[in-house]
Amino acid sequence: MRAQFVLSEIGVGLRRNLTMTFAVIVSVALSLALFGGSLLMSDQVSTMKGYWYDKVNVSIFLCNKHDAENDVHCAKGAVTEDQKKQILVDLKRMPVVEKVTYESQDEAYKHYKEQFGNSPLAGSLTPDQMQESYRIKLKDPQKYQVIASAFNGRDGVQSVQDQKGILDNLFQLLNLMNRGALGVMAMMLIVALLLIVNTVRVSAFSRRRETGIMRLVGASGFYIQAPFIAEAAVAGLIGGGLACVALVLGRYFTIDHGMDLSHKLTLINFVGWDAVLTKLPLILATSVLMPSLAAFFALRKYLKV
């Protein structure tokens, strides 16, 4: 009987405050969808870091005869065979180096034509203008400075470049976007909490006569509060369910189908469905606990039980 009474009161409360309940559902859905999206973005950045940092190389570009005429780093002339051999020997002795690959001028020219063959500059370049280089894969990509300090300024070396620096700029941008999404989520969450508190207050005020009678007949505080807390929990759960649907549909239509980014952007290792599905229980639990706690504290202040 008590459970039936509580359930009937939930339905009454939701119908009485239909517009505010709808606003609570929408705000909870939006805030939790942004919350789930931010968690997935964080996972995506971590996945991309693990994928790309494992592939980045440090490149040691060697001086050619053209650099000797135009580049101050190559003032002593083009790299010699002895200098190239010594650089290779020193690289292989370094404990941070996992693998060293040599790229000749002809190979560099071929790779350039493959990547930028349609550019106007490609037609004016010749193989002897390209730079020989050593491509070094490090055991730990964070140890770039060890290579840079050992070979920058060395005879025959034009420059030492770290591809990780380019990726760091990309990841900083992604992290900035993620923090922006979290900021919007926080504002939406505050709006949702305020709406929940106001909805509970209105519901409690509209049923003050019933709650007064219940107090007179000796009903416990929890028994009086339970319908109001349950109303907020139900509204939040509906919003959480919508947020879960939004995340699943978003993953499906942007990555797998629709926009089909998984095939169009093959260089990006997108997070899988397992990452999405593991976030759904957290979103649903938050959608129930957050409104319930907000309603509980609102009732303690505004409902004298």
From TrEMBL:
Record bears the keyword Cytoplasm: no
Top-level taxonomic group = Bacteria
Q: Which residues cross the membrane?
A: 21-41, 180-200, 221-249, 280-299
**InterPro entries from the entry?**
ABC3_permease_C, FtsX, FtsX_actino, FtsX_ECD
Subunit structure, interactors included: Forms a membrane-associated complex with FtsE.
The role this protein plays is: Part of the ABC transporter FtsEX involved in cellular division.
Q: Tell me the protein's name.
A: Cell division protein FtsX
Q: Which gene codes for it?
A: ftsX
